Amino acid sequence: MTLDRQPVLETERLHLRPLAEVDREALYAIASDPGVWEQHPIHDRWRREVFDAFFDESLGSGGGLAVVRTSDSAIVGHSRYGEVELDEEADAVEIGWTFLAPTCWGKGLNHEMKRAMLAHAFEAIDVVEFRVGDTNYRSRNALEAIGAVRTEHYELERYQGKRVVHLVYAITREAFARGPLA
């Protein structure tokens, strides 16, 4: 079964739908707050040109999702299903590139969104991976709270001349079924 990487997902308080060009300004209004990115390896995504490159990549990826609060139809964030480049027999997808408006932090919306995204993914695949900057403790804690386990894998890249380490976390279908989001 092939995973639909741009589904429409409904939760109690959120509507996730395929990302569209019309979402650019609403998402930039959120992303332009430097506090959203203070622990993120690409800490300057609040800058217009950096955000636009991120948005264009997400729009072109075929996996970007706009996160809409159902109570007022406001766009409150973004997430994405990405492809995991493993061997041909790998049955995995990545969830990431997630950010929410600071007004949504601490209200359980990330858990709610991830529960829906994971449930959808596990209809078609066996493993979901997450990549997170090693100093992004807010995101690392959020991943551990939803049952993701840090693997031995990591990725290195460079951004603005500095080494960036991304840790790889994972959740299997079986772990999800018995984990904190079940």
Q: What is the strand and helix layout of this fold?
A:
Blueprint (H helix, E strand, L loop, with lengths): L8 E2 L3 E5 L5 H8 L16 H14 L2 E6 L4 E10 L8 E9 L8 H13 L5 E7 L3 H9 L3 E11 L2 E11 H6 L4
Parallel strand pairs: 5-6
Antiparallel strand pairs: 1-2, 2-3, 3-4, 4-5, 6-8, 7-8
Would you mind describing this structure in some detail?
This protein is an alpha+beta fold and 182 residues long. It has a single domain, classed as Gcn5-related N-acetyltransferase (GNAT) (Aminopeptidase). 27% of the residues lie in helices and 34% in strands. It has 5 helices and 8 strands, in the order E-E-H-H-E-E-E-H-E-H-E-E-H. It has an 8-stranded mixed β-sheet with strand order 1-2-3-4-5-6-8-7, with helices on both faces. The longest helix has 14 residues, at 48-61.
Architecture (CATH level 2) name:
3-Layer(aba) Sandwich
Tell me the CATH topology: Aminopeptidase
Distance between the termini: 22 Å
| Overall pLDDT score | 91
Within the largest sheet, what's the order of strands? 1-2-3-4-5-6-8-7
The secondary-structure class comes to alpha+beta
Q: How would you briefly describe this protein structure?
A:
The chain has 182 residues and is of the alpha+beta class. 27% of the residues lie in helices and 34% in strands.
Descriptive terms for the model:
eight-stranded mixed β-sheet, 5 helices, Aminopeptidase, alpha+beta, 182 residues, globular
